[in-house]
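Forwarding these from the shared drive since the link keeps breaking.
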Amino acid sequence: MLSICAGLMLLTALPTGPTPEPLGAPHFPDRVHAFVWRNWPLAPAEDMARVLGTSAENVERTAQAMGLGKQPAITKELRQRSYITVIRRNWHLLPYEQLLDLLGWTEDELAYTLREDDFLYVKLGLLKPKCEPLKWVEPDDATRAREAAIAQTVRDSFPAGATTEVEPLFGFVSELSKPVDDAQSAYESSKLSPRYCYSYFALYGDAFMDGAPDPFPDGYLSRLAASGVNAVWLQAVLYKMAPFPWDPSLSEGHEERLKNLAALVARAKARGMGVFLYLNEPRAMQLAFYDKHPELKGAVEGDYAAMCTSDPAVQQYIASSVALICDRVPDLRGFFTITASENLTNCWSHHTGQKCPRCSKRAPDAVIAEVNALIDGGIKMASGGQRLIAWDWGWQDEWAEKAIERLPSDVAQMSVSEWSIPFTRGGVANTVGEYSISVIGPGPRAKKHWGAALDRPIALQTFAKIQANTTWECGSVPYIPAVANVAKHMENLRGSNVSGVMLGWTLGGYPAPNLEVAGKMIADAKLSGEDAMLAVAQRRFGDAIAAQVVDAWKTCSTGFSEYPYDNSGLYSGPQHMGPANPLYEKPTGYAASMVGFPYDALPAWRGAYPADVYVAQMRKAAKGFAESVASLKLSLEKTVGGHRMELQRELNIMEACGLHYASCANQARFIVLRDQIAAGGDKTAALQEIESILQDEISLAAQLHTIQIRDSRLGFEATNHYFYVPMDLMEKVINCRDLMDRWLPTIHAAA
């Protein structure tokens, strides 16, 4: 999540923004070859051929010439679940028209996805590179020679074959969906409720539309319940769930969505689970909308304006829409809100209420509290039993406590537990913004806001928002096995008087050891973190090696506590891509985007840390995971059957984390050396180190490839889909080989 600028609100046309030159891929003969390579595991050859204006046979011949082998099966499920991965990998290759052709979408479908699929356009950099139409060109002799060289690299580095998949992409979905015995009863005595999280694999943009993949299959719900979770959440956009009175076309299909929501709620209820909806409302509209409805217009940002929540008609729309949802889905557990930042919604949501003639005369705390009161009022209109959780995310310090004072007495107040904790790493003082497992909460901001809620004449219930499984410290693994840090956080929350806990944003819904340890500690307020970890390790891996697993979790936690946390690097850094992030021989000129493209934007990656400190801290973090892997691989020989398989899966995650952080250190050091050479620094020592880095990156990419082809969980996050697939790790090897064979000799010659 991020405070974002205008530009994403109710787009009716595809956004453009800046249109810089796209980044090339000099390790391929041309853009056509890059296109075929990057789409080979995700788009049928026939679709690629249509985009290129050629035959499927030509596409297949191009793939074979690069050593790719037979195209893997491109299933309907794969295409439904991977569209963000497809968009991202073609962002620098295709103009919008060809991207739409490849996806088989309309402009409206893509515009909605860029806007509402967790700020995808922000993640893509708030720009679209100006890509020329891509057309098939018959390869010449030089191209064929380069194809052959790529194929040789593939054979040398990946002897098992380019498209070998022991576990196909999204294989984890069927695994998590398998029926299991319900096990929620062990946690019913817990006084900490709700305990809710997002789906590990739900589609974010429009999860309730007809034909959308099931976000919570029964088997998966049962697995979450067995981990101590008793509720789940999904995004809802009001104009998709209820009639939008000023433009009913926006609400087409809302009845079907309500029906599908009700069916999910019923299935969840049967397993002791509730469902919450996330609301960030009302969505802003393009300025043209207000030509017909000027009375609704609030604060303006660019080509968009807020629907002013001081207007009675807007107030009625919010309350009545919520009432309709509650009426149609009476067993819905409730809602939680973000009311400052994210989308432009109310006039003070981006802290610019002074731009509105009405809201400029009102305090931000009054407007923010009123929006929550309107939603709460909608619940009461329906005489519903739903509850509202007001999340203080984005509330400014100067008025947050006043907003808490104004909230209705039946609303719960939620704070990010670890927010604003001061800490020092590598001699650098810093402060947590949010999303941290490496820094352990709760922190001063949460304690202050919880105190304000509890000290009211009529106290509010208080909730903690944590990340039990993973954070943007590495969002492409299902969990960061720094389990001791999670256990310590749960111990620290005792005595905070919180009544419920949100266990994660969109990342972190996997039924992992982290989640299970947190669940056990929530269920038994006297259970220590040590005992909870041991109990979970015994259940998952057997008594014989449980203690060794706990020791490994502790080692991971100690190493991870050296991670160079910085709020800038959290969103900008390469930790989600790891070895899949390419290296560039020259500065790209691109700014890193929010958990999207890290590019080579080292200043944003490192934040407050000097480059050498950032590198050193990443290496320390990597070392903790590597040491844990080394120790547990010895234990692997002592295990058999299901316990052995479970331990191998645990090792996959630990090893992947270590590889990601080791690569982050390599990438940062490469950029420092590259720029030193360009600035006229000593080339001899720098070139030797660069060559060593390139060799190491080849090794890291190959190692991660070996793990990912057998563990489809790696590289995936619900709102980003796959950050990388095995073919991207293979491309990284080709990228590094090209730099060694083509670029380095030119630098050596100049030296």
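-- next protein --
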Amino acid sequence: MKENFQALCEQCGPKLPGRGKLLHSISYYPKLLEAAYVAGYDYIPPVTESAPIMCFSHKKIHDVMALAQYMIGREVNRFHNLTLVAQGGLFHGIFPYQDMMPGFVKNQLFKLPAGWSSRIIARYFRGLFEDLNAYPVYRDGSDLPTSEAEYKHPRFAGPQVTGMSYQDFHRYTRKQTAKSVLQVQREMEEKNRSFVILPEGRYCHDGRISELLDLAAYASHRKSRPIIYTTLSYEELCPDALGKIEVFMYTAPAVQPPESRSDFKAHMQKGRELLQNNTTVLASSILAAATFMELEKGPVISRQSLHHSFEELSSKVLNSHLIFDPRLKSPEFRKERWSRFLSRKAFKWFSIRGDAMKVRARRILKYDDGERTVPDLLWNINNAIHAAEVFGLDPERVKPEIFQSLVEA
């Protein structure tokens, strides 16, 4: 970043590299990123060619930091300036209110000061994303509640957060979303900018790649630009002492534009499969699968047996066609990941005495419902659900209700 900063300023203007430098500096704070690894930069065309559409999988709030590392890590001759659409809530107080305000203030008494505070916080995010050439799109049911009652409810606090009535905000979001889509297309064509999009729309899901929106296919078809898909994988179950986690980003070869509008659905389904199948299998995915398979035997598992399962599944992954963390080949690395898992996660989820590990149901079932829809163990399995056959795991059993019955048995 330091070496290329001046060249990037000359190429893209000072705002984009400046914001990238800021995001890079805060990305390695506690609870954020420990390290970022990228494979596939060579698939990004040089700036002398048409800028591609870049689609990334969407996993968690860390994605903002991860994408900053990905973007600024490119060679200058592959650094197209970018344009993107972002969650509309980031430009109002919706995101700060929903994701940053504690639950106890989301009531009739505190919704007014909490809403005002969210609007103030939103000014920072609005400035940040505008400097990144981002334009807001609003999604029904998320940025825009489906009824006026939901809009006014303290859970959303629409009038306090946005300063608009439901009808006015509804009209505003429709107009702004259409305007944003047109603006992005204009910048792609007139300024040869790379359209960056998270086609799943949001990250609150079960860990598998969700159905992709058609917007990327639409832009690819209209502007005759290829789509480059990049997956994100997090070493979530093996954080360091400060709670920081590693991220792996894998870029696949470009996919050519769909030939017609009727191809959009099939085209994005192919993209969904690419994002899932190219997700890097990490120690966290293997440890999660091994733990689940041991719990299928009973709520009290053997520490030695779990370690053996981890080693056995690791061996299967190493001898498979899957994309995996190459460090898994090292016994010392696997030993270090096992140690991290025990100290950071297992001792929280299990009561451990000697070789016996008795599951603590309430703790292992707990998760952040603002970020995902299943417990953390299942989320990490689902990230690598394409590896289920290699693991010898039935993907249909990786369900919250089945998991709950296992740990509460």
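The first helix runs from residue 5 to 12. The two ends are 52 Å apart (CA to CA).

- D.
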